[in-house]
């Protein structure tokens, strides 16, 4: 008697089936997209570094925002870069009188008039000795606001001060 080999034969699966080819291709495409060379990232350029400088009224006046220059103003001897507030302190702004100047007296008096500014840029700095308590408080609140919002870029000294930059 012959042996009955009627059991079904196991099919041999080939890994070269169409579905495996599609999945393999998809895997390779995903790997390429993940590891492909990417364009170098370009970081935005920051503003140029600011160096703390000693100013006199004559050298500070140049920083009034005209001709795309920065806008600086001084309060009690500290020079602030108010360029981010150019719409307020620059040319055409409501406080443009203070651009490039010592704004201490005007801020203390809450007055933005020209007569609050020292006309003679060679004169000694305004010592503000005649201000009353309310005016000093006004000035302090302005100075605090500037300190929180703007960078201090230097100090203001009189033209004849030993620390004054030489012309």
UniProtKB/TrEMBL annotation:
<keyword id="KW-0256">Endoplasmic reticulum</keyword>
<feature type="domain" description="Cytochrome b5 heme-binding">
    <location>
        <begin position="55"/>
        <end position="157"/>
    </location>
</feature>
<keyword id="KW-0812">Transmembrane</keyword>
<keyword id="KW-0479">Metal-binding</keyword>
<keyword id="KW-1133">Transmembrane helix</keyword>
<protein>
    <recommendedName>
        <fullName>Cytochrome b5 heme-binding domain-containing protein</fullName>
    </recommendedName>
</protein>
<dbReference type="InterPro" id="IPR001199">
    <property type="entry name" value="Cyt_B5-like_heme/steroid-bd"/>
</dbReference>
<keyword id="KW-0472">Membrane</keyword>
<dbReference type="InterPro" id="IPR050577">
    <property type="entry name" value="MAPR/NEUFC/NENF-like"/>
</dbReference>
<comment type="similarity">
    <text>Belongs to the cytochrome b5 family. MAPR subfamily.</text>
</comment>
<dbReference type="Pfam" id="PF00173">
    <property type="entry name" value="Cyt-b5"/>
</dbReference>
<dbReference type="InterPro" id="IPR036400">
    <property type="entry name" value="Cyt_B5-like_heme/steroid_sf"/>
</dbReference>
<dbReference type="GO" id="GO:0020037">
    <property type="term" value="F:heme binding"/>
</dbReference>
<keyword id="KW-0349">Heme</keyword>
<keyword id="KW-0408">Iron</keyword>
<feature type="transmembrane region" description="Helical">
    <location>
        <begin position="12"/>
        <end position="35"/>
    </location>
</feature>
<dbReference type="GO" id="GO:0046872">
    <property type="term" value="F:metal ion binding"/>
</dbReference>
<dbReference type="GO" id="GO:0016020">
    <property type="term" value="C:membrane"/>
</dbReference>
<dbReference type="GO" id="GO:0005783">
    <property type="term" value="C:endoplasmic reticulum"/>
</dbReference>
